Structure formats: C-alpha cells, structure tokens
Amino acid sequence: MKESISLRRQLDEILGSRAKVSVLRVLNDGRPELNGREVARRAGLASRSAQLALASLTRIGIVQMRAVGNNHVFSVNPEFNLYKTSIQAAFAAEKAGPEALAQDLIRHLRGEPILTLAWFGSVARGQRDAGSDMDVLIVLKDSRASEGIRKALEGQAASLREKFGFRIELYVLGAKELARRFDSNDLLVRNMVKDAVLLHGKPLSEVLLDAP
User: Fold this and answer.
1) Total domain count for the chain?
2) So what's the pLDDT on residue 132?
3) Which of 20, 116, 180, 189 could form a disulfide with 201 if both were Cys (CB 3.0 to 4.6 A apart)?
4) pLDDT of residue 107
C-alpha cells in the first residue's frame, strides 16, 4: 500500500522544489549527458543544490546516472512514465509560451501592420520572480497608430494575464521614434535593443538601419 501511495504522489517528489524543476529543464533540452557541475551551471544553481536535486531525481528514476571514468553524467530518462506522458509536454509548452503570446497579440491587432514584436527585460533574460512583468515591444511603421493599438491591447490585458500568468507591460513605438530615442541614448530603448528576443517580424537592428 505504501508503494501505491508513493506512485500516486510522484509529482510531489519530482516537482517539489525549484532546484529539481531547474535541473529537469536543463536535462530536458535534449543535450548530451552532463556532469553535475555543468548541470548546476546551466540551471543557475549552487553546486550542492544541484547535487541534492540530481540525487533525488535519480532515486525516483526520472533521471539516469552513468559512470564515466571517475565522473558521473546525467540524462533524463525518456521512458519514465510521468516524463513521457506529461512533464516533457509541460516543458515544451513553457518553451513555446512567448510564441503563443505573440500569436495572441497579433490576433488582437486585427491585421495592423507591425514591423517587430519582441520581448525584453527580466522575464526574457530568464530572471523572472513572482512580481515580474513581461515587457513587450511592438514597433510600427507608422507611429500614428500606436495609441489606438496600445489601448486595444490594454483592453486584453486581464485575459492575457489569466492565460499566461504574467502582467503584460506594453511599449508601442513607431520606427522613427525608436531610432530617434536610440540615437539620443534613451536608456529604456537602449535596453530594449540589447535584450530583445524577437517573436515576430524584423530584428530591431534592421528596423534601426531602415528607419527614416
């Protein structure tokens, strides 16, 4: 009976800490087997935290460990039931989240021509905490439409937060204004260009080069 209860509550053990989720996310990326130090580095964890997470996940069976000389390397177990039926799909959905958000925003724009849709800031850098906003930049060819687009998307803010779990902070700029503020060393725009992760349209470097 105890084993049966354990099987029904495996998710508690597998996903019970941020360290374990971070380790699984690294191993889920489909890269070659990794040693503990490299797992810790890629997961952004202290070495001891990564070691404990790897030991627990290996004991459960979702992670495999193999000896290579005097070292040990780790990989995800692709045949582990919960991984194969749900956890792998959850990581895939998480990774595709920004693109899904972009498609939702594009649908709400109802065909408005946009040059670039990108996200930037702490969430884009993978440094999200509980209070982080998702900073989204939309660049238009014609800035005269920016206010109408901003209002239209702000009207969808609550439904987008319910769907994606983020408060969306929108920045809507015309290409000419973006270039002007970049040239004047506007710190916000400079950070946008530096951090931007392209979701749709042209890279910001091309927008800046083509701006009148």
Assistant:
1) 2
2) 66
3) 116
4) 83
Give the residue from 98, 95, 84 showing the smallest Cα distance to 29: 95
pLDDT in tens, 95-108: 888 888 888 888 87
CA separation for the pair 137, 73 (Å, rounded):
41
Q: What residues make up the domain containing 148? A: 96-210
Domain limit, last residue, from 51, 70, 94: 94
Between CA 173 and CA 194, with CA 205 as vertex, the angle to 5 degrees is 80
- Residues 180 and 102 placed together within one structural domain of the fold: yes
**Structural Rg of the chain based on CA atoms:** 22
Q: Looking up tokens 């582990």, which residue turns up?
A: 80
Q: Are 195 and 169 in contact (CB under 8 A)?
A: no
User: Is there a single domain that holds both residue 106 and residue 204?
Assistant: yes
Calculate ∠ Cα 148-149-150, nearest 5°.
Answer: 90
- Residue 161: its H or E element: helix 157-164
Please report, for residues 38, 39, 45, 57, the alpha-carbon distance to residue 48 in angstroms, rounded to integers and kept in the order given.
Answer: 13, 11, 8, 14
- pTM (predicted TM-score): 0.74
Are 113 and 106 within 8 A, CB to CB?
no
Instruction: Output the domain CATH number for residue 145.
Output: 3.30.460.10
Final residue belonging to a domain, choices 94, 124, 147:
94
